[in-house]
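> forwarded from #structure-qc
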């Protein structure tokens, strides 16, 4: 049950943080209030879509793999999140953009890392516990 809550809550938390960052950047670069709000709203929709899309595709596959391999350590989850995030970036860049750039891989890798750490934290998974689904 905790894992199910984490799969819903963690992408929302990450999307809110990223939307807040977009608001700050827009506030420093957009000349009008309407411009700031437009950028923030667009970023919010994009971040929610990307975070939940990643979580319920690549992220869920990675979590199932970690669960199957009985891996609950923070370092393993962090590395898996970064690698799966980079893989998601490759797929996203290939199919939805003009190609895969280093910045895209780094962004998706960092996002995957953050998402996996958040999921692990919200779900209450501890090293050696093996009870991600309680």
């Amino acid at each position: 049950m905790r894992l199910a809550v984490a799969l819903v809550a963690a992408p929302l938390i990450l999307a809110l943080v990223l939307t807040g960052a977009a608001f700050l950047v827009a506030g420093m670069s957009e000349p009008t209030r309407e411009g700031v709000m437009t950028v923030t709203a667009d970023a919010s929709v994009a971040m929610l879509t990307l975070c939940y899309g990643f979580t319920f595709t690549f992220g869920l596959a990675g979590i199932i793999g970690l669960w199957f391999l009985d891996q609950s350590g923070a370092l393993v989850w962090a590395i898996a999140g970064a690698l799966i995030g980079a893989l998601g970036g490759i797929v996203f860049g290939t199919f939805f953009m003009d190609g895969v750039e280093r910045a895209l891989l780094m962004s998706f890798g960092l996002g995957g890392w953050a998402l996996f750490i958040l999921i692990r934290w919200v779900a209450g998974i501890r090293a050696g516990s093996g009870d991600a689904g309680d």
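QC bot note: The chain has a mean pLDDT of 92. Residues 6 and 120 are 8 Å apart (CA to CA).
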